[in-house]
Amino acid sequence: MIRSTTTVSVLAILAACSSPNPPTISAADVGRSLDEARDLSTRPFTDTADLPTGLVTYTGEIGADVSGDLNGSIQGDMIMHVQFTDNTVDGSVRDINLIDPDGRPNQRLGGQLAIDGVENSGRIDAFASGDLTVVDDAGMTRDTNVLLTMGGDVVDNYGAGDAVFGSVQGDGVGDLNFDVDGVFFGTVD
Q: What sign does the CA torsion over 166, 168, 169, 170 have?
C-alpha cells in the first residue's frame, strides 16, 4: 500500500510541473522589431481627408517593457482591423514572447489578447485584454489577466494611412503581477 501511495504522489508532483513553451522569435527578430518601431514612430499622421475607407488590416507587433513579478520585455504578433466606415477597431495579439533583461527570448506565453476599440479621424483608442499563462522558474504554470490601453494614430509610411503607431500601457494581475509600458505598430500588407 505504501508503494502505490508513493507512486501516486510522485505522479501528482510531476504533473504539476510544466515546461515553458519555446519562444517563437529570436534575438535578431527583437532587434528588427525595435528598428521598425523606431522608424514608424517618425512617420506623419494621416490627414483626415486622406484616411482609407472601408476595412483595413494592419499587421505588426506589440513590444513593451514589463516590470514586477516579470522583468524584461514582451513582444507579440498584432493583427489590427480598422473599419473606417463605422469607426471600429478589433483584432488580436498572439505569440506573445517573454524576453529576458539581456534581450534573449525566454518563452512564449500561453493565451492571446483580444483588441477592441474605436477609430476617430485617424486616432485609435483601444484595449487589448485576455488571460496569459507563464511557466515560472519552478516549472509552475501561473495565470495572469492582462489589460492594456492602446492609444495611437493612423500614419503615412509609404502611402496615405498605410500604417499605425501608438503607445500601450497596462498591467497583468493574478498569480503574477506586472506593469506593461511600450508601443504597438503595424503596416498594411
A: positive
Q: Which helix (H) or strand (E) holds 134?
A: strand 123-135
Question: Rounded CA gap, 184 and 168, in Å?
Answer: 6
Confidence of residue 137 (pLDDT cuts 50, 70, 90): confident
Beta bridge partners of 147: 129, 171
Cα(135)–Cα(142) distance, integer angstroms? 6
CA nearest neighbour of 186 among 56, 5, 68, 4? 56
Question: Measuring CA to CA, how many Å separate 137 from each of 33, 122, 148?
Answer: 27, 43, 25
Q: Say if residue 134 is exposed, middle or buried (CB neighbours under 10 Å; 0-12, 13-18, 19+).
A: buried
Alpha helices (H) along the chain: 2-16, 27-41
Please give the average per-residue pLDDT across 76-100, as a whole number: 97
Residue with cell 527570448: 105
Burial 94-106 (b: 16+ CB within 10 A, else e): bbbbbbeeeeebb
SS3 136: coil
Is residue 146 scored above 90 in pLDDT? yes
